[in-house]
Structure formats: structure tokens, C-alpha cells
Amino acid sequence: MNRLAVDFLGNHLKNPVVMASGTYGFGTEYARFYDPAELGGFSTKGLTLEPRPGNSGIRLWETPSGLLNSIGLENPGIDDFVGRIWPEIKDLDTLILANVGGKDEESYLEAVRRLNDIDIPIIELNISCPNVKAGGMAYGMEPDKAGEITEKVKNVSRHPVMVKLSPNAGDLVGVAKACEQAGADALSLINTLQGMAIDWRTKKIVFDNTYAGFSGPAVKPVALRMVHQVCGAVDIPVMGLGGITTWQDALEFMLAGASCIQIGTAGFADPYAPLAVIDGLERYCEDEDVMLADLIGKAVK
Q1: pTM as predicted
Q2: Which positions are catalytic?
Q3: Across the strands, what pairs with 41?
């Protein structure tokens, strides 16, 4: 009996632990630590139509209980993924999501069109990246814009589309509802909060891009609250993420309504963190004699 099995958009996951985009490369980078097939799945490095070198200058800055990043969607481009990377990873025994970003509407749509040539299970539409100057988070800040890009992507995609939401939106629930109404098959949240760092020694702003994405354990209470609010407002599945480090964190997100969860920053500090989460959830379910899927959304006042 697999007590951790969950279903997500017609896909059967052996467990609910999915590695977040930008933290797990393309699945092979962590293979020297463990077989990616031990995971429920992973989301690829954020892909754009054209190759991107990413942001210049400092890209990572540690903070108490967190991490600031200004990577800038460095990636080899969608054509390289389709032609070279996908053939290498497509047979991994785990759910693979293609995270897609863009600088404008047409770059989003063309990238998604090119993914129609492969059998990727789910597209994770990134409208929430806070550390690129064009596109990215701009589409995820207002319900109208989020709904518009979601509808257009759905019209050109032959794959299910999961929209990744920004915690920086003024009306996150409104954005979530707009994406659902526009045809989104699922939602993932939260992406990183927007933050910054100043080096008191040099008296200079740390990042060339000024602001950066803030993640890690410190954001968990905010992420948990937002996941709970969105799960209570929409009728499509949600992947919950934001500061998940332990199996207890993962369980809380699922009790709040998430169908499965993503782990990101924790994997930098400890590559084996996702396996510890899986093991902890398994022991808990055995001790409680429950199926994990039966606990989704069961948090009560």
C-alpha cells in the first residue's frame, strides 16, 4: 500500500513531493545524490523562447532563515530543451513539468507552441518571477492581465497549464480566480517574495537588478496563508510551495488544501531534504493509519 500516492491533473504521483523550478535544474543534476524517480516530480529550470545568460553580478545572498536570488531565468532556451534535454529526461519515472516564462505575450505563446512537439505532462506558466526586468511578474500582478495571458496560452497549448502565482500581487485571490476562469487547469503558489539587500560594508545595493526573490523557511507562514486562501476560492488543484523544509511543513500545506507540494530552497542547504520529507510523511501516515490524499484540505478551526 502506497499511503503517499496522490493524483494531479490525471497524473499518478507516487508521493506529493515535487521539486520547484529553478532549484532542481533539469533533473539530472541531482542524480549523483539520488534517483529522481524517488520524487513525485520536478519542475524544470524556467524556460524562455530564447537562451538567456541571466542577471549580471551577485546572484545569491543569504539572509536569516532565507535566501535572496537574482538569477534572472538563465536557461538554454526552449529549442535546446525540446531538441536536446527532453530526450535525455523524458523517460525518468517521475512527473516532469516544463516551467515557461517570457518577456512579452508573443514570446510566451511561441515558447508554449514549441512545447506542443513533445509529450510534456504539464506546463507551469510562470507569470510571477520577481527578478527579471521584462515580462515575468508583470502578468501576475493584476487579475485582468493574468486572465488574459492564461487564456491565450491555453488556446495554443495542447498540454494542461498550471499557472504559477506571485505573492506580490495586491489581490492574489482575484488573480487566482481570473486564471481559473480563463481556463487554467491548476495553480502553483507562491513564487518568491520581492526583497532586496544592501551591503553595509560597501554601502552598495547588492544586486545589479536592485530587487531579488526571497525564499526559504522565513516565508512559510505567508505562503501557507496564501495557499489556504486560494484553495478556498478556486475549484482547480493547487500545488503549494514556499518555505517548505520538513515533512510537517508539507503536511500543513496539504491540510490547507494543496493537492501536492513543491520544495525549493531547502534542497540547496541539504540535497537530501526532499527524501527526508517523503520519509517523514510515510512514517506519519503509517503511525496514523491514514492515506495522505484523504488529508487534503482537512485543516479546521
Answers
A1: 0.96
A2: 129
A3: 18, 95
